[in-house]
Every structure is written in C-alpha cells, then in structure tokens.
C-alpha cells in the first residue's frame, strides 16, 4: 500500500477516534446535567473510545495497520512490526487528524448557549491531566505510572491480537475492548490518554493548564508503548 494512502488512513482513523471518544466526553457524558438518564457518563465514554478504535480498525486497518496513536506506532516499532523510517510521517498524520477533530468538536460544542472552556478545571474539554488537572486529584507519579502500564498492556494486546496465529478477523474487537477497559480503569486518574495524538488534539484548544501538562501524555504513553512492544518481542511469540 502506498505511503500517501497509509497516511490518509492514519489521519482519518485518528480523526475518528478523537471525534468519537472526546466528542462523547464533551457532548454526551453529562448531557442534561447531574442525574439526567440521557447522560452516558464514565461507562459510556469508555465504550465510545473502544468503539471508535474497533470500527476504525475494521475500516482502515488493512490500509495502514490502524495505529491511530503515536504510542502504538512506537510500540510496534519496538516489537519489530513497524519500520522506524515511517514513524515520523505516521505521527504527523495522527496529530493532524486528531487536531482537526478537536477543532470541529470545539465548533460544535460552541454552538450551545453558555458553553465555555475553563482552563483551570480538571478534564475540561476532555483534556488529560495530573494534580489539580486530574479528575480525581491524582499525583504526577500516579498519572505517569498508570499511563505507562496501561499503554504497555494496550500494545501487548494489539500485538497478540494481530499475530499471524491469532483468530483471523477478531483483532479489532479485542483491541476495542482493551481500550474500553483502559478507560474504565484510568478516567478518574488522568482522564485517560494512552495516546499522545488524542491528548494534543484537545489540549490545543483548552488553554494553558492542559498544554502545560501535555508533555506527560507524550512521554508516558510512548515509554509504555516501547515497553509493551519490547516485552511481546522478548516473549518470542512474534514469529510466524
């Protein structure tokens, strides 16, 4: 598959992930206010992120591999599944696709009377954070640890589910459910990143608070991705 088509698929897939996942958090999580049964809450947002990856992987995975995440690209490189020469183009496409989704989400959200982004509020505009910017007030150490560990496990699931000896056709389901589980665990801690492109996409529009903490949501997921890829490779299971 030509590089231009692969990068377009990564752009679209990351766009879909941010629009679907972050869009559910911004537009639907608290719809109607506290106690309104129409609001989807933490469970709904977690499922939305999983569904975007599941559907995106089925639609575009055969074109680009369906990374939609710089940490996954780094992890697959560490695991011997991805050419390092393609890392930078993939990451640029992923960040650009996410940023476009963040911009569109901002335009939609701004169409509601009274909508405003509070740059000092935890989780504002679906952003990630630690300390005062963490939904549950978790420390930077706790945030870094959960992001590293969960990203590592996510990459291990991806590599296992897409192995040549894994059941054919089911990888996107396993990957989507893994991302759902990851969100169920870590939304209270960091609002869940495990994806630098997803974090950047909303932080760009959320003010100085989110931007000042964005570094962690690049560093920790990439470290986790590298660890996960290296672990799976060392297991000796990445041989057809």
List keywords for this structure.
240 residues, mainly alpha, Glycerol uptake facilitator protein, 65% helix
Structure description:
This protein is mainly alpha-helical. The chain has one domain (3-234): Glycerol uptake facilitator protein. Helix content is 65%, strand content 0%. The chain has nine helices and no strands. It has helices at residues 3-28, 41-64, 70-78, 87-109, 140-161, 171-190, 196-203, 208-213, 216-234. The longest helix is centred in the first third of the chain and has 26 residues, at 3-28. The protein is globular, with a radius of gyration of 17 Å. The two termini are 21 Å apart. The model has no long low-confidence stretch (mean pLDDT 95).
CATH topology, which one?
Glycerol uptake facilitator protein
Instruction: Report the radius of gyration as a whole number of Å.
Output: 17 Å
Largest sheet descriptor? none
| Highest-level CATH class | Mainly Alpha
What percent of the residues sit in helical stretches (DSSP H or I)? 55-70%
Residue fraction in strands: under 5%
| Classification by helices and strands | mainly alpha
Run of helices and strands: HHHHHHHHH
CATH architecture: Up-down Bundle
Question: Spans with pLDDT under 50 lasting ≥5 residues?
Answer: none
Q: How many helices?
A: 9
Going by CATH, the homologous superfamily would be Glycerol uptake facilitator protein
Averaging pLDDT over every residue, what do you get?
95
Number of strands: 0
Subcellular location: Cell membrane
Site (Involved in tetramerization or stability of the tetramer): 22
InterPro entries: Aquaporin-like (IPR023271), Aquaporin_transptr (IPR034294), Aquaporin_Z (IPR023743), MIP (IPR000425), MIP_CS (IPR022357)
Pfam families: MIP (PF00230)
